[in-house]
Amino acid sequence: MDLNITWYLLVGILLIGYAILDGFDLGVGVLHLFARNDRERRLHMNAIGPVWDGNEVWLLTGGGALFAAFPVVYATVFSGFYLALMLVLTALIARAVALEFRGKVDSPGWKVIWDWIFGIGSLLALVLFGVAVGNILRGVPVNASGGYEGTFLGLLNPYSILVGVFGLALFTMHGASYMAVKTEGELRERMARWASSLWVGVVVLYIITTLGTWYVATYLFQDILGRPLFYILFIVFLAALIYFPVLLGAKKYFRAFLSSCLIIGSLLGVTAVSMFPRLVPSSIDLANSLTIYNASSTPKTLMVMLIIALIGMPLVLAYTFYIYRVFMGKTVITEESY
């Protein structure tokens, strides 16, 4: 395994880690729109309050790793998706501000404004992330020199919007399973029902999205059956997807949440295996695609960055483990809470 493949794995692990960790708190933000009273809204915010900013470290680390290892990809994607990424950034900043500002003024009107900002910011971020993934899967208009030739409106195509809706359902289900772990009583039971209902939507949307992918991104299926890792990840995905409602029905909510993590991680893993070695497929001509070889940094840069990553990633993992261990258990509302 060469350095290029190693960095493909590292960037993939970081982005999967971000999807699993920040995915549930974005999902909780969407569920916040359907809270019935102020206490439930505070429970939503305080369930993710101690961890949401740490979760986003994974996105920053993944983006930094992408810039260091595959700078051409970073340049092409960030220039082509510039407006979309600015909208994502605005949504993430807005929900972060809402978390901090909601409780600063004891006024119902003030809280309602920030509740809407928090919920809509979370929903918009999830949909836009999904749309971005959909565009990558179907192919981006990249020319022979690696330049982006598309427009912002071109990103809003039916397939990518479908992937965005699928992502919204998947991560809202993920958030509901997390809330079932962190709460008690009637809210916990309602979150479990939300997760169960959303699971049905996820299954239906997964089937539709897979059929759509077969139609618009045939290249993803060309060599996949010859890759053993695909079978492993796909079996894990199916097992976790089938087992999820069983665990909810048995009221084993923490295991259901872990199953949800496996669904997301294995699904993204299958996607990565299908795309390999491409990072940004070209919709103009697949020969123009940016791969782990034609878009990478020099071998010396990859080696130096690998040494730094081997030092830094264990620190990120240790920090994440420590934070979740400290704040494990049920969410309790106190005077210091959001």
Characterization of the model:
- It is built from eleven helices and two strands.
- It has 338 residues and is mainly α.
- The protein has one domain (3-326).
- The chain has a two-stranded antiparallel ribbon.
- Helix 3 runs antiparallel to helix 11.
- The radius of gyration is 20 Å and the shape is globular.
- It starts with a helix and ends in a 12-residue tail after the last helix.
Short note summarizing the structure:
This protein is mainly alpha-helical.
SSE order and pairing:
Layout: H1 3-32, H2 38-48, H3 52-69, H4 71-80, H5 82-101, H6 108-138, H7 158-182, H8 185-216, H9 228-249, H10 253-275, E1 278-280, E2 290-291, H11 299-326
Antiparallel strand pairs: 1-2
Helix pairs in contact: 1-2, 1-3, 1-6, 1-7, 1-10, 3-4, 3-11, 5-6, 6-7, 7-8, 7-10, 8-9, 9-10
Number of domains: 1
Order of strands in the sheet with the most strands? Answer: 1-2
The gross shape turns out to be globular
Taken in chain order, the helices and strands follow as HHHHHHHHHHEEH
Number of helices: 11
Q: What can be said about the biggest beta sheet?
A: 2 strands, antiparallel
Measure the end-to-end span: 47 Å
Strand content: under 5%
Alpha carbon gyration radius: 20 Å
Q: Which residues form runs of ≥5 with pLDDT under 50?
A: none
What share of residues is helical? over 70%
Classify the secondary structure makeup into a structural class.
mainly alpha
Kindly state the mean pLDDT as a whole number?
91
Tally the beta strands.
2
